[in-house]
Amino acid sequence: MIQKDATYVVMGLLDSDSIAYAIGKAIEKWGGKVIFTVQNERMKKIFFDRGSKMTDAEKARLDIRFCDVTVECDVCNFFKTVGPIAGVVHSIAFANPKTCLGEEFHTDAIEDIKLGFHISCISLATVARHAWPHMKDGGSIVALTFESRVAFPYYNWMGVNKAALEATVRALARRHGKDLIRVNAVSSGPVLTKAAKSIPHFAFLSRHWKKVSPLPWDPTGEKEQVANAAAFLLGPYSQKITGQVIHVDGGASIAGGEMMPHERPHAYVVEDEEEPVAPPAKPAA
Ligand SMILES: NC(=O)c1ccc[n+]([C@@H]2O[C@H](COP(=O)([O-])OP(=O)(O)OC[C@H]3O[C@@H](n4cnc5c(N)ncnc54)[C@H](O)[C@@H]3O)[C@@H](O)[C@H]2O)c1
């Protein structure tokens, strides 16, 4: 699954609910070593030190370093500290929920759109550029995405970022094949994390997933499955897979419409509709 005793960098830890944390645990379970990155010390203090459900002993055991992916020298300096590595996970995204997510797609907050694009997409290329010299024997880079072939309500500019991230995965896969470095993405269904909570009407997405997914999908419980797929892509069992988006979404991405009651897993209940959303105000005449 994972190269035993090899070191993997997992970027994007916020707290123990983060997908990054679940991926780190999966890597350790299969015998790898993990270096986590947190955006900065302030974020660590607020969310990880105070906010997470972990014991102090668990926290102390983790190798945590800092790296803001929008700061070129941060990324460069961080990778200078890691030594030889077998892989990198990019589990990072941001979009201002007030301007880039929500009921209205249109916005004049261009700087917010640019920042979201920098953090959620460009940074994957920045990370790859500084990481690949440390993967002398080849390696694997894995990014986290969300279904971007269709447009979801409320997800707006993050959907745009994810489509660009997936294109970046393909471009990087092409660029780094000669270095025996593979680049792939895991497309996760909705799972409950801090980033997810900042998506307006995240509950709508979760309920929608339960209705369209052939397999049961529990947004509070599927992180481990997402993490296992990332570990598979990091390790030697996926040696000929590159440039791909692997969907770990209960199959929602292949379903043409909602699952009919007779198609749903036994005893699998989907709650009724999303709480009503106010209709948009009529444009002024
Ligand atoms: N939660 C979901 O439903 C879901 C579904 C599909 C894909 N994803 C993706 O998974 C990845 C991880 O998100 P998560 O849900 O675990 O949430 P999370 O909030 O735990 O992780 C997001 C991370 O991005 C980091 N980040 C933001 N700006 C940064 C910067 N400038 N430099 C460094 N780090 C920065 C945050 O500090 C945080 O650690 C994201 O790419 C997200 O889009 C999440």
Key terms for this structure?
binds nicotinamide-adenine-dinucleotide, 285 residues, 7 strands, Rossmann fold, alpha/beta, single chain, 9 helices, 37% helix, 7-stranded parallel beta sheet
Describe the structure.
The longest helix has 22 residues, at 110-131. The protein has helices spanning 19-29, 41-50, 56-61, 72-80, 110-131, 156-176, 194-197, 202-212, 223-234; strands at 7-11, 33-38, 64-66, 87-90, 139-145, 181-188, 245-248. The model is unreliable at 273-277 (pLDDT under 50). It has a 7-stranded parallel sheet, sandwiched between helices. The chain has one domain (7-263): NAD(P)-binding Rossmann-like Domain (Rossmann fold, 3-Layer(aba) Sandwich). The protein is globular and about 50 Å long. With 285 residues, it is an alpha/beta fold. 37% of the residues lie in helices and 13% in strands. It contains 9 helices and 7 strands, in the order E-H-E-H-H-E-H-E-H-E-H-E-H-H-H-E. Strand 4 (87-90), helix 5 (110-131) and strand 5 form a beta-alpha-beta unit. Bound molecules: nicotinamide-adenine-dinucleotide (NAD).
User: Total number of helical segments?
Assistant: 9
Shape: globular
Order of helices and strands: EHEHHEHEHEHEHHHE
β-strand percent reads: 5-15%
Q: What's the domain count?
A: 1
Q: Can you say what the CATH homologous superfamily is?
A: NAD(P)-binding Rossmann-like Domain
What's the story with the biggest beta sheet?
7 strands, parallel
Oligomeric composition of the shown chains:
single chain
The distinct bound ligands, ions and cofactors come out as: nicotinamide-adenine-dinucleotide
Give the strand order, joined by hyphens, for the main sheet.
3-2-1-4-5-6-7
What is the class in the CATH system? Alpha Beta
- The assigned CATH architecture is 3-Layer(aba) Sandwich
